[in-house]
From TrEMBL:
Required cofactor names: Zn(2+)
Cofactor comment: Binds 2 Zn(2+) ions per subunit.
Alphabetical list of PANTHER family matching this protein: ALLANTOINASE (PTHR43668)
Naturally occurring in which organism (per UniProt): Streptomyces cirratus
Pfam families: DHOase
Keywords: Hydrolase, Metal-binding, Pyrimidine biosynthesis, Zinc
Name of the molecule in the record: Dihydroorotase
Residues reported in the UniProt entry to bind substrate: 58-60, 90, 276, 307
Domain Dihydroorotase catalytic: 45-233
Active site: 303
InterPro entries the record matches: DHOase, DHOase/Allantoinase_Hydrolase, DHOase_cat, Dihydroorotase_CS, Metal-dep_hydrolase_composite, Metal_Hydrolase
Length: 428
């Protein structure tokens, strides 16, 4: 059926309205709309958002299909309310050529659950020595506009400057994994009281902050755009705030787990809490929430990092870094930002849909919920409370830090260009 009427939903958390979808487009928004010829979704009390957009997802394909595939990752994304994700370049082979990014883009097209926009590597093989084929990736069918060596830092200042200069020509952006490598050699967790008590190698905040400070100055010098991946410290917030006050073209993201979890959890030695950058202190969490609320941090990005069981169910030092996040992100944001009064649902839409689409240059996502716009939509039952059970995840991996934790909110429906990918909380 080509027509769908979403009845009585609170659009962006506001007044209850009806939304009529006709084909791939929102045909009408109002009250008392006719349901003639339409499938009706009763949505009284639920919040309707534009489809979520994740600027930082690891889909692992090609090369690590034991962790995730484009299909399983996009199914997880749809389950979490996402209609578009940006796939990071640290695959095997690395997405540093037009051929590899086009492969990922085509796999996304075939999945049907979520649009996939590849992110191209900044340097060949993520080795930080030679610029990758930035222009060729941008000119490919995938039309790459975001470039990142995420998982590794572009620590050579000359390489970083050249990348910023190159992408400026076509309006691209370099997304930096801010980690000074020499300052984090042997690091296992946040450097602080807990690391000292546990005897684990510390990961100092300055390792992140020093790279961000350098890169915002380089972006100002070049007149280009830089995006800071998974910002995690109070000091980083202050640097980005200062840079924005100078008019530097910098944007930043925070992950859901850095909005909720702290390094105190590492006392359990449960490797599910091992992540890059590491979980920080309560002071950092507070600063990150406040910065997301006031716009210093522009967006929430999941850094969805799936790993097979054997890579996490082992001793702490040997465990891989990373957490899955697509299916729990909106719930964590509801708990940390909405239920604390720091953001309303319109603010959530800005930080999880409008702004990430704008930063990544996606024209048909992150659009208003109004007539004539693409019908990329997410319907959320905000009154729901449930315990996280990774056995029910659509992702191929189960490395979630929220297992057994009660979180609010549940995505009941996701629509990609008017087609339901999730219905009543179940993948279509």
């Amino acid at each position: 059926m080509s027509k769908i009427l979403i009845r009585g939903a609170k659009v962006l958390g506001g007044e209850a309205q009806d939304v009529l979808i006709d084909g791939e487009t929102i045909a009408e928004v109002g009250t008392g709309l006719s349901a003639e010829g339409a499938q009706v979704v009763e949505a009284a009390g639920q919040v309707l958002l534009p489809g979520l957009v994740d600027l930082h997802t690891h889909l692992r394909e090609p090369g690590r299909e034991d962790s995730e595939t484009v299909l399983t990752g996009t199914r997880a994304a749809a389950s979490g309310g996402y209609t578009a994700v940006f796939a990071m370049a640290n695959t095997f082979p690395v997405a540093d050529t037009a051929g590899v990014v086009e492969q990922v883009w085509r796999l996304g097209k075939e999945s049907g659950y979520c649009d996939v926009q590849p992110i191209g590597a900044v340097t060949v093989g993520l080795e930080g020595k030679q610029l990758a084929e930035l222009g060729a990736m941008h000119d490919s069918a995938a039309r790459v506009t975001v470039f990142s060596d995420d998982g590794k830092c572009v620590d050579d200042a000359v390489i970083m400057r050249r990348a910023l200069e190159y992408v400026k020509a076509f309006g691209g952006v370099v997304a930096q994994h801010a980690q000074e490598p020499r300052l984090t050699e042997g690091a296992q967790m946040n450097e602080g009281v807990v690391s000292a008590e546990l005897g684990l190698g510390g990961w100092p905040a300055v390792a992140e902050e020093s790279i961000i400070a350098r890169d915002v100055l380089l972006a100002e010098h070049v007149g280009s755009r830089v995006h800071i991946c998974h910002l995690s410290t109070a000091g980083s917030v202050e640097i980005v705030r200062w840079a924005k006050s100078r008019g530097i073209d910098v944007t930043a993201e925070v992950t859901p787990h850095h909005l909720l979890l702290t390094d105190e959890l590492v006392r359990s030695y449960n490797a599910v809490y091992k992540v890059n950058p590491p979980l920080r202190t309560e002071r950092d969490v507070t600063a990150l929430r406040e910065a997301l609320a006031d716009g210093t941090i522009d967006i929430v990005a999941t850094d969805h990092a799936p790993h097979p069981h054997e890579d996490k169910d082992c001793e702490w030092a040997a465990a891989a870094m990373g957490m899955v996040g697509l299916e729990t992100a909106l719930s964590v944001v509801q708990q940390t930002m909405v239920e604390t009064g720091l953001l309303d649902w319109a603010g959530v839409a800005e930080r999880m849909s409008f702004a990430p689409a704008r930063i990544g240059g996606l024209e048909n996502h992150g659009r208003p919920v109004s007539a004539g716009e693409p019908a990329n939509l997410t319907l959320v039952d905000t009154s729901y409370r449930g315990v996280v059970d990774p056995a029910h995840f659509a992702s191929r991996s189960r490395n979630t830090p929220y297992e057994g934790r009660e979180l609010p909110g549940r995505v009941t429906h996701t629509f990609l260009r008017g087609r339901a990918t999730v219905v009543d909380g179940t993948l279509a």
